[in-house]
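Minutes, project check-in
Item: structure for the 177-residue chain
Input as provided by the requester:
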Amino acid sequence: MNDKNDDKMFFRINHQIRVREVRLVGDNIENPGVVPTSQALKMADEMELDLVEISPKAEPPVCKITDYQKFLYQQKKKQKEMKAKAVKVIVKEIRFGPNTDEHDFQFKLRHAEKFLQEGAKLKAFVFFKGRTILFKEKGEILLLKLAQELEEFGTLDHMPKLEGKRMTIFISPKKKK
């Protein structure tokens, strides 16, 4: 039963907690607050539950009296929910040459529109091979033209940047209303 998630979630429990006093929190405690660790352990023992350190970096560390297995289950569940709610950014790439003709440009433009409408971020770049690096201006004009054509679908993140043999732009999709 030792899967990867168990390694990430390690909480000290009961006698592993080696501080003088702890801050007790939770629903099943009459008077939450700072108490000696020995007293907190005694309370947990009387309730037949575990003393779990939930915030070790706090001063004093925060502990909760609960069933440890149930606590771990709830923590895993919370992590799963957070992961599901996280926004996954998809980046789609479109590659041009400095001498891309109009038909190819229109073809790639339609793909770019589709990508942005689907909510993906677009990375468009012009790749310069060999001596075509002499046509940097053509590449920049091409990328700016693309950005202008896609204005209603997305916003340009930054002006074209030349990095090595590539001139790149990023276009983020516009938020749907």
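Outcome recorded: Residues 1-7 have pLDDT under 50 and may be disordered.
No further action items on this chain.
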